[in-house]
Amino acid sequence: MDTYPPEFAIHLQPTLVVSGLTTTEDASHQEDVNPSLVNNDSPPPPPPRPGTQSSKTGLAAQKSILLQAMLSRNNVSYWDNTKGLAGSLFYVIPEQAAYNLPPTRRFLQQTNQLHLAQQSLSPTAPSSSLYPDGLITPLWIRRHREQIPSVFIAVVDLWDRESIVGSADNGQRGFSDKGPLGVVDPMERDHDTTLAQDLLERRKVSQERGVKFAAVVMLQRSHMDDPSIEDRLNFVRKSAGLDLKNAFYVLPPSNSQEISDFAVNLQRSQYEGSMNYYKEQVKRHKKKRSNLPSTTASVRPGQQPNTGGSQQTLSVQGWMFRYDFKMGMFSECKQDIDNAVKFYESAYGLLIDMFAVTSTITPGTPGLQARTRRWAEAKVLADCLCLKICKFYLYLDAPSTALFNFRRHLIVFKAFSESWKMGDDSFEYWAWLGKQYRVFGDLLDVGTKAGFKLPIPSPGSVVYGSFAGMTEGSKDLNKFSGIGVGNGAAGFGVGPSGDAYVYGGSVGGGRGGGTHGPGAGVNPMLVLQHAGYFYHQSANCSVQRRLRFEMAEEAYPDSSVAPVPTNSRPYPPTLQSMNAERAIDHLALTIELLTKSYEQFKRHKAGRMTLFLASEIAGTYYTAGKFEMALKFFERIGKTYRKEGWNLILTSILKWSIQCAKELGFWENVVEYLIEMMSPDMPATETKRLSVFDELISILHTKIHPANTSAHKPLVLSMPQINSFVSCAVQFHTKQAFVASASKFQFQLATQGGQGALPKSFRLSYVLVEFSDPTLNHRFEDPRSLDQTDVQDSLERLSIKDRTGRTVEWINCDRCTFDTERKTWITNVGLDINPHSTLVIEGALMPEKEQIVQVTKITLGVVTEQWNVALEFPTIEVAQEGGQAGTQHNYMPLQGNPPRRQWLEVSRASEDTSSSPKLKFKHLDKGTKRAPLLRVVPRESKVEIQTLFKSPAYLDEFFPVVIKVRNGEAFPVAMEMDVELQSIDPSIESLDSIVLDPHAALKSLSAGSFQAAQILHGIRLSKASSPPSLSSVLQDLAVGEWAEQTIFVKALEIPTPRTIVCKVRYEVSLENEQKKSSTEKQHAFRVQFIPPFDAAVDYTPQLARVSETKATRESETALVPILQANVVDEKYGAVTVPALTHTEVYLMSTRVNNEGPWPVQVKEVKLIIGSESNTLSETSLAGRDGAAGDVGGLSRGHSISRMRDRKKSLQEVGIRVELLDDSSIGLDGAASRFEDSEDSESNIRPWRSGNLQTFNHLVRVIAADLDMAPEHIEVGYLRIQWRRFEDDGKATAPFVVTNVPLQPLELPKAQPYMTVDLPKDALVNRPFTAKYNIHNPTGKTLELAMTVEPSEGMVYAGIMQATLKILPFANHSIQMNCYPLQAGLTRLPRVKLVINKRKPSRRRGQTSHQPQHPESHEETLVKVRGATKMGGPQNARTGTGEAVVIFVKPETGSLE
Prior knowledge:
The chain is an alpha+beta fold. Among the domains are: 6-101 and 148-164 and 183-281, Rossmann fold; 606-706, Serine Threonine Protein Phosphatase 5, Tetratricopeptide repeat; 728-937, no CATH class; 944-1064, Sandwich (Immunoglobulin-like), CATH 2.60.40; 1093-1306, no CATH class; 1313-1399 and 1415-1448, Immunoglobulin-like, CATH 2.60.40. It has 27 helices and 63 strands. Strands 9, 11, 14, 15, 18, 19, 22, 23 and 26 form a nine-stranded mixed β-sheet that branches. A five-stranded parallel β-sheet has the order 2-1-3-4-5, sandwiched between helices. The chain has a five-stranded mixed β-sheet with strand order 10-12-21-17-16, with no helix packed on it. Helix 2 packs across helix 7 (256-290) and helix 24 (1170-1180) packs across helix 25. The chain starts with 5 loop residues before the first helix and ends in an 8-residue tail after the last strand. About 16% of the residues have low confidence. Residues 374-679 form the Trafficking protein particle complex subunit domain. Residues 716-1103, 1269-1385 form the Gryzun putative trafficking through Golgi domain. InterPro entries: Gryzun, TPC11.
């Protein structure tokens, strides 16, 4: 849009002038708008805002903020961006404080000051640029937009006395105090009168022009405290004659937000006056138009040739155009779009009629002469009016009408151009047409960015019949829609001779016209599209413009001589137009337009069109000589066309790419494009294919070619990314093969397409087949030069032709040599790719390990002195039958797309030696199309493995397992066996072991040198009768013979199944092979392990009986324990405190059960307690973490680590366990300890399954401090030495040790208790003394309440109730004299001791209103240790079932 005057293109708004907010030098009306700064997105800039300085304070700062608020809402754009706020906005022009509207011409005539009038812009004024026949100038619009506003607002200051205080001249006139209320200050009145007079003069001038005038008085801080401010403001308003409601405003000191709101409200209040101004302007010009004379031939004579005399003045039709245009402009400023469209269309119709040779509106009047100044001005006006009309129809949501008017404008002027001899064969026409498309595209671009929505066409859309007729290209414009001319609607047209005429009626004009109906359809020419379409049309016009200009440049090359008409060019362009066209870069303009179109189509997600535009841009870059940019665009769009299979377009792109690469010297790209051009998918003739092939061979093999001035870098091409002229694949004969055995594969190389696809034979330098195992890679090389044709090798070759005429050649390359440097199998073979042929190379792999062999890549190489080109074909996955391949290229092109795997099989007749071998494709299997991988597995072993053992096994024993191996091969083999005992949890170190000789393992275990092993390697297998051997000499096992090996498994701790894996290895000689293949057979089995013994123990506390011994006498005379001195234990070296030491004696009754199903022989059962356990654990740690030793393992998870924990805890708390008596007996009265002689071992009777053995032990537990002792302590464990009992009496395994854990002992808590000392004998009717000992092992003083309850069979004499206090760690004795009355088991009188625990009563300071708890007692009975539990009603009454009894003998006689 920047090619047209911005005044004709921008969206006009009401103009508002505000004065007093800026200085003289900042006034915007003194600065002209630079049209060069206007573009599509940035229209003419608004008036420059004065710089706001941070130093401004007070009233100046208020004015600056108000000015910014006024200017912030200026809308200077080609599109109306205000939406619904359009009626409340102005285009604000800031002016200086002394500014006043220019006086009218009438006022200047009355005052004889006409010389001060502004320059007239009327065609009647000789000083005007329009004199004598001009239409309109942009200066007129600028004057009404920037100099003659619709609203004039004067911002003034109210004078303040403080502004002169301190002045040297006026200091003596200052007042210190103001007068009383109602007294007027003369100085203030003088200044107010001057201000009112100034406002009055401005108001009068504004009224003369019809401009709405308003005044804004800005107050200062000092005015807010002045009581006379209201009177002063009223005086100024009334003196100036301003209305209080809409013409006089007061702005007190305010903040930024308040000033911004004031500016908005001020503009809204002036909007109605602005609309009235433009309304009166429309009425005034409409009246002027109606006063024009009639448009008849008699009014205006025919135009005479200009001979230098009087000039032709503007016609009546021209004045009608001026008035219509002005009314349209004022309506646009008024934001009356409907009337603006009507006036602009009327002006457009009048202007179009003026271009005709003879006018139809003014009969007899000639049209504008082509290539004149007025003709050029009128043409610009027509273009801008069309743009305005289209824009307004878009405002009114009538896109089809806007498009109709635009295309009507193009067709009309196309007809006019032909009548002016400036048709489509001239660059001037294409320049004009391209400008129209670009401007319309800019309009749509600006509109869509501002919120305009493009229409979505539907079958029921409006179809303009008149517009549809325009597409026929007819010069007869009678089908055009009607355009309002004057008060009626008239159609206009241009005949074949260029004459214009008018007809009545309208065909489809307006927003409602057109043809409707279900059969109307959608015409793409009637649908308004986005801006990209019009940018592209403009780019096409730019191309035609360049071509036409080049033709004119050839005809008129001299830039200083005007073109002369010739026979071929009777109407040449002017010298001025030629020179102007020479300054334009047509290609840059075309690229710019195509780029803008590309961006628009990309924004609207039109993928196909963006690719097309990219190709157009690339072609333009190529024409401009920017080959690198062109090549980038070609490569970018070529990827998409290649992916989607548009090979016809891709061929053209490749041709252009080759030319660009040659110009740039990118020969690697040239080779790549030529290789793709050889593909049969690229449509081309045989001659073209042959030229492409020859050019490729010339570049690769000709030394004098320009591309071969130096050696090139290796060129690697990924063939699946481009179209290939060959296809290749690798096929395995079988899906599975054995290690170290030969497996055949075939490499198949076939040309694409049919006959003529490849014009000549193409020779490869090498073929490299890469596998997942690099040691299996095969490289087939052709050492011949290009001129050599004979193949010199000893390889077997066969060739046939199939039914389609394709030549199939088979080459046997199974004898390759291994290159140690490149680590690749290599052989020499002829690698000529013949037209319409398939080359099959058969090779063999010999994998040396178990794996999955995959084909990773196939590389076809061409190596010359200057080039090293590699064509890489990556492999694809196995495609199932009916599935789609993962790429568009076919890697198995034999006979189309075969449904199954094919193998080229060579059939040789064994009997007839004269017949030649035959080739035939054979289907290998069903279901898959190709098998690009080979599974290599070890050779299947024929060895048979059996295991013999008695399950379940016992923990801690050396469990024998017999492994038998049978040779099932057809020849003797030497075998080795590995046996592995897998751990239960891999994260935990296993304590299990596996051995061959348990006796030797037991000896090394006793010596502390045994190392537990879970794997036995290299066991040499021999006949079952031969002893096991670990020698390095292997013995062959005959066919069908059995080898037998016994292993012993020792499992500890956890009773769970163990997995044992045995692997048998041997080597087998393959057929026709010198190497031997190692074969392995694996056999796994599980053995269940259970504990051999289970133990349960009962702890019975023993009552100590006192006798007349030395110890008793010493205890009677001993001091109170708390007063006794510390004692050093000589045995354990520990210091004990007698007051804290507590001793208990328990009887342990241990029951040992044989849990397993197998009988065992027990050699020894021993209780390991106290320090013995700790010492033994330390000794057993000399082995490997206690996994094996004399102690053996613990059958229930009690490992040596738990022994350590127990040792640590007993030492820390001072617990000591001692064995007092061992009176246990075994089965049949046998003692628990046996002699270590062979005779004794043979006499040991087995423990059968379920047998129960009982062992009794008397132990004493001494606690250094009972309060610190744990609740449960482990007394020890049973150490059982045993072995499995065989039925035949033969023992193969030695005795082993199992540590059976025992239940922990629960120690009594530190609480008072009683013990009783009774005499040995008691007789009836004879008194005896019973002594009750009360012990207080706690650290507190106890208060006990003692009560003695009588007994039926015994009389008691003594205290019945008493209260006792016992010190901490002290004892108290009570003697009771009893008299037995009956014989037998008699209960003594019960001594009941209750511990009194007083609960605290009310605390000191507790108020009386708080609840008081009565004093209470908590009773705790003191138990008698060693008492007998008895039943009866009395026990129920006393609450306890414990009683102390004594056996009373008769006085005479004895009990039977």
